Amino acid sequence: MARGALKIPASASPLSLILLLAVTHASFGGARLAISLQALHLGASAVTVGLLMSLLMLVPTFVAVHVGRWVDRAGYRRPTVLGLAGVVLGEGAAVLLPNLLGLALSSLLVGTAFMLAHVAVNNAIGHVAGASGRTRAFGFMAVGFSLSALAGPMVAGASIDLFGYRWAFVILAVLPFAAGALLRWAPALPALERAPERTPGGVLDLLRLPRLRAVLMVSALISAGWDLFTFLVPLHGARSGLSATAIGLVAGAFGVGSAAVRVALPWIARRLSEWKLLGTALVLAGAGYFVFPFCVTVGTMLPLALVLGIVLGCGQPVVMSLLHVTAPPERTGEAVGLRAAITSLGQTVLPLAFGAFGTALGMLPMFWMAATVLGLGGGFAASRPRVQ
């Protein structure tokens, strides 16, 4: 066996891992929407909402790479269990402290804990699926994320309107328990087999790899396009007079679009190279953000959210497949952690920046700034050579 490889049983399937991650993501996505809506309900400004959204990914920005190295050494089970427990604790904090301080604590705990589970399970899926099934497995994972992006916000929005904010967080906290039950059927992976004398290089060694560096850059843009939607839509919807249920439906339409395109992704990938697909997705997402501020009703927001879900939804499985191809095989967990750290940095900085701009300049410049960044990133991605 090659150094750095994992001995995976031939009968192992990533399905339980995909379901586990999707259920956890539903809880995370619902909590993110509930935190922003409750902050607005408490009279918070766009800057304050941006700060709360930034806190979700503040800690992951600094620790995700270390988590990835831990996963490479020890496997995924312990980080996953800790992550699920942390999500429950974070949502419990919002129940016990229904104020801005409690929401800040909830953001810190939920974001950090979800990162633990995400890095660990994501890396495990790549190893369990193997080279021949990796693209298919990440495609299924992406469909699961799309469905959870639909379910989480809709459950949160409906629960808020029916029962109030506290019960919404209680309902969302049940989901990590369901995800934990799936660990019973998850394959057991051995620790990474590495020669004792080998000392892994630092993050800069990974960033010196040109192909991996390009994947990480485009991954950050795809993630930014996705996460800006979850930040901008509650603000725009609330200012347009939509109810929490209506805002949840708009967020759910985004999830429907991303799920639909991921089902069709194998057909699309046969006709476009990885980089052409990513470039096209980013340019079209930029166009969608350009026109979004002119949509002020549910009837106009729903179809545009659906389109944005379609164009951004195809990016994640392609990026994850490219990540496992371009990273050294014995350092895939670290590479997944590095990707999480980079995207977390964007998720920390962008809500603060856009919240400040939104307070000072209004919603229109925020949408157009996002459109410009995504369009430029699409041009960069489309110019990359096909992966051999």
Evaluate the radius of gyration.
20 Å
Helix content: over 70%
Order of helices and strands: HHHHHHHHHHHHHHH
Average pLDDT, to the nearest integer? 82
Structural class estimated from helices and strands: mainly alpha
The 3D shape can be described as globular
How is the biggest beta sheet arranged?
none
Q: Compute the number of helices.
A: 15
Description:
- There is one protein chain.
- With 388 residues, the protein is mainly alpha-helical.
- It contains 15 helices and no strands.
- The protein has helices spanning 15-41, 46-56, 58-74, 77-96, 100-163, 165-181, 203-207, 210-239, 244-263, 265-269, 274-291, 298-313, 315-326, 332-361, 363-382.
- It is globular, with a radius of gyration of 20 Å.
- Mean pLDDT is 82; it is low at 1-6 and 191-199.
Characteristics of this structure?
single chain, 388 residues, 80% helix, mainly alpha
